[in-house]
């Protein structure tokens, strides 16, 4: 019996925690996982894993796990070769589209699609060959406002600035509960420790949420917003930044900021207060605190995406980061350089095409 240790990454969520996996090789049998632990040498996750990663052992060793394609014949299933399965699926897809049209085939991509190099580098080629407009994913459920905002502001739907939690001094969270979700569009393993580290180094964590969420419970300040009133709050914050001269120069080229200032002139904290359920002076003070921080992040997630003004919320959050000089800046929001760069390798996306 031989024991071997392998170092891999868990791809069940975007935290991508490093794993140390021990397997046992016994004569005349496939390798069997005996242990999954966090890799303490992983510079990103630093030894942290959650129960989902530990459960990978159960998935791998499950005797009922499918390990090859199965074909149904009547009420029975029988194994077939991989190539036979590929050929059958390709022939059926082609025949359906030839007979009924390209859009009679739909594609759904789950969240782990973007945690898998193979799918990230090759799925777009396959989908391009299908030429169907019926494409659905976890994105279409909870985060399209992020992508539309990036498409309209930055020219590419995948250019998503993420919060630099490890270096920020002030983190404002709207519509997010990373202590329950492990974080989303922030890519941070052990998010609770990372958020508490902001406080330990003298920074501040503020949560905007209609309920006292798990993340709100550890925050320095929790403001209860009226459900669906986040856009009004963000308008009040941005207006205060302009009216009180709290903006900061950015190293980025900016076009159209004067038009924005003019457009939101009437969206004062006083006017927005009844709409968001937060006192006008609290809105103004929050804007001052955010602007006073050397490095700050305004971060909105699912709660501000899946509402009537989702895209507006994300546009305003991006503007708050931009006008305070925190966009694409250490300690603010970062435009990262990933291993698979979808911004340079894909089109920017489209809107209102069909």
What does this protein structure show overall?
By secondary structure, the chain is α/β, with parallel strands linked by helices. It folds into three domains: 2-61, Phosphorylase Kinase, domain 1 (2-Layer Sandwich); 70-137, no CATH class; 147-334, 3-Layer(aba) Sandwich (Dimethylsulfoxide Reductase, domain 2), CATH 3.40.228. Helix content is 40%, strand content 17%. The protein has 16 helices and 13 strands. It has a four-stranded parallel β-sheet. A three-stranded antiparallel β-sheet has the order 1-2-3. Helix 10 runs antiparallel to helix 12, helix 10 crosses helix 13 (280-292) and helix 10 (230-243) runs parallel beside helix 15. The longest helix has 19 residues, at 82-100. It is globular, with a radius of gyration of 24 Å. The model has no long low-confidence stretch (mean pLDDT 94). Residues 3-62 form the 4Fe-4S Mo/W bis-MGD-type domain. InterPro entries: Mopterin_OxRdtase, Mopterin_OxRdtase_4Fe-4S_dom, Prok_molybdopt-oxidoreductase. This is 4Fe-4S Mo/W bis-MGD-type domain-containing protein.
Radius of gyration: 24 Å
Distance linking N and C termini:
60 Å
**CATH fold-level topology of the largest domain:** Dimethylsulfoxide Reductase, domain 2
The number of distinct β-strands equals 13
Main β-sheet, spatial strand arrangement: 11-10-9-12
Highest-level CATH class of the largest domain: Alpha Beta
Low-confidence stretches: none
Helix amount? 25-40%
* Total domain count: 3
Known CATH architecture of the largest domain? 3-Layer(aba) Sandwich
Would you tell me the structural class of the helices and strands?
A: alpha/beta
Strand portion, in percent? 15-25%
């Amino acid at each position: 019996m031989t024991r071997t240790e392998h170092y891999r990454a868990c791809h069940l969520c975007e935290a991508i925690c490093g794993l140390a996996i021990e397997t046992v090789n016994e004569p005349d049998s496939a390798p069997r996982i005996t242990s999954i632990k966090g890799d303490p040498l992983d510079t990103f996750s630093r030894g942290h894993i959650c129960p989902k990663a530990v459960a990978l052992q159960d998935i791998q060793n499950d005797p009922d796990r499918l390990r090859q394609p199965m074909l149904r014949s009547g009420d029975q299933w029988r194994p077939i070769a991989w190539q036979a399965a590929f050929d059958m699926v390709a022939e059926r897809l082609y025949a359906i589209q030839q007979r009924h049209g390209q859009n009679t085939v739909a594609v759904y991509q789950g969240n782990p699609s973007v945690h898998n190099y193979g799918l990230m580098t090759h799925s777009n080629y396959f989908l391009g060959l299908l030429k169907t407009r019926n494409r659905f994913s976890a994105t279409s459920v909870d985060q399209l406002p992020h992508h539309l905002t990036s498409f309209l502001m930055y020219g590419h739907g995948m250019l998503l600035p993420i919060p630099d939690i490890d270096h920020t001094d002030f983190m404002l969270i709207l519509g997010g509960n990373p202590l329950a979700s492990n974080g989303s569009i922030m890519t941070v393993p052990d998010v609770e420790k990372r958020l508490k580290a902001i406080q330990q180094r003298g920074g501040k964590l503020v949560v905007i949420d209609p309920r006292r969420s798990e993340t709100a419970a550890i925050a320095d300040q929790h403001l209860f917003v009226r459900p669906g009133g986040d856009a009004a709050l963000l308008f009040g914050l941005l207006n205060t930044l302009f009216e009180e001269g709290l903006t900061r120069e950015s190293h980025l080229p900016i076009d159209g900021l004067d038009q924005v200032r003019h457009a939101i002139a009437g969206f004062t904290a006083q006017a927005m207060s009844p709409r968001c359920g937060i006192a006008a002076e609290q809105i103004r003070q929050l804007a001052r605190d955010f602007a006073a921080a050397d490095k700050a992040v305004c971060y909105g997630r699912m709660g501000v995406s899946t509402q009537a003004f989702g895209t507006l919320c994300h546009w305003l959050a991006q503007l708050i980061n931009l006008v305070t000089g925190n966009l694409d800046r250490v300690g603010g929001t970062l435009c990262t350089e990933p291993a698979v760069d979808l911004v340079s390798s894909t089109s920017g996306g489209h809107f209102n095409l069909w």
